[in-house]
Design brief:
Arc Repressor Mutant, subunit A, 12 helices, 5% strand, single chain, elongated, 295 residues, DNA-binding, 3-stranded antiparallel beta sheet, mainly alpha
DNA sequence: AACACTCTCAACCGCAACTGA
DNA sequence: CTCAGTTGCGGTTGAGAGTGT
């Protein structure tokens, strides 16, 4: 699958993994642990590149991975996190235990993005794609799928651009982020707090008015706070709309970004104090969570 | 049954960030 | 500080499964 192999990978296996390869990789990692991906294939006896091994392990073989059956709670959290964070799949995945960034990305692209766009276009709008089990296909026949020629790729890009103008979902520049579960115990809280101190890149561009429409409820599993639920009916639209406005004013200078980050965090803390939505016993955990978002 | 078409998701790529010498 | 090697991320692709005609 995917693209043509690059020259350095000639001679290596590509495409779907066989059960034998899976077994080799799993056995090796169980015995020696993760890491050193570059040299891992050789040591594990696999004819794969290290990148491929890492991907297979991270997205499929890891024992703690949940597959399929995205719950409504997860569904909702993905949408809300995405409205706040954009396409930072690894960060979103970090708040969904057992889910991988790849799975969330795929789920978003195939299910949620359509739903969110439809919501933003109003209740009368019909999604362009229909569920598979839709039987009324006669009147909704699509053109035959063509190979991605340059022209139709450009055409699609134009359509996408146009659509993007309508929907105005702010997609921040991707950055590398660390997705740390926030533990309730003190040791982990210290880690989260100290980690936040060094971060100054790529703030979450968000304004007070965005925060005003939200209330927060921590999602706790096994003593770890994995995320928060945001209450309110119209939140997604309002958040997207105002974030989009902010997007128009983005200044790329580091100072502006840093100030925006600081402002957001201050406002976030203030909101939590003012709103009293969350009990005091959870305040510390939520603080850590907010800080960890900027790690 | 055969074909046409859509949808899903595993796997790929390029590139940015990180790390250590 | 620089540079090379490694790791991790988000975007993209296309095979295969599913569904309709």
């Amino acid at each position: 699958m995917g693209r043509a192999p690059c020259c350095e990978k000639v001679g290596l296996h590509r495409g779907p993994w066989t059960p034998k390869e899976d077994a080799l990789l799993t056995k090796y990692i169980q015995a020696h642990g993760e890491g050193l991906w570059k040299s891992l294939p050789k040591r594990a006896g696999l004819l794969r590149c290290g990148k491929s091994c890492r991907l297979r392990w991270m997205n499929y073989l890891r024992p703690d991975i949940k597959r399929g059956n995205i719950t409504p709670e997860e569904d909702d959290l993905i949408i809300r996190m995405h409205s706040l964070l954009g396409n930072r799949w690894s960060l979103i995945a970090g708040r969904l235990p057992g889910r991988t960034d790849n799975e969330i990305k795929n789920y978003w692209n195939t299910h949620l993005s359509k739903r969110v766009k439809a919501q933003q276009l109003g209740p009368d709008h019909q999604p362009t794609s229909k569920p598979r089990n839709n039987t009324n296909k006669k009147n909704n026949k699509k053109k035959k799928k063509k190979p991605a020629t340059k022209n139709n790729v450009e055409g699609e890009a134009e359509k996408a651009e146009e659509q993007e103008k309508k929907t105005h979902i702010y997609l921040p520049k991707p950055i590398r982020v660390r997705a740390l579960p926030i533990s309730i115990n003190e040791e982990d809280s210290k880690i989260s707090s100290s980690a936040s101190g060094s971060s100054s890149q790529d703030p979450l561009i968000l304004q007070k008015e965005d925060m005003d429409v939200m209330s927060y409820e921590p999602w706790v599993e096994n003593d770890d706070v994995f995320g928060f639920f945001v209450e309110g009916d119209q939140n997604i639209d309002r958040v997207n709309a105002s974030v989009s406005e902010e997007n128009n004013n983005i200044n790329n200078s580091d100072d502006m970004e840093y100030e925006s980050l600081e402002r957001l965090y201050e406002e976030y803390l203030q909101l939590l104090k003012d709103d009293n939505v969350v009990g005091d016993e959870n305040q510390g955990e939520l603080d850590s969570f907010a800080q960890s978002l900027f790690v």
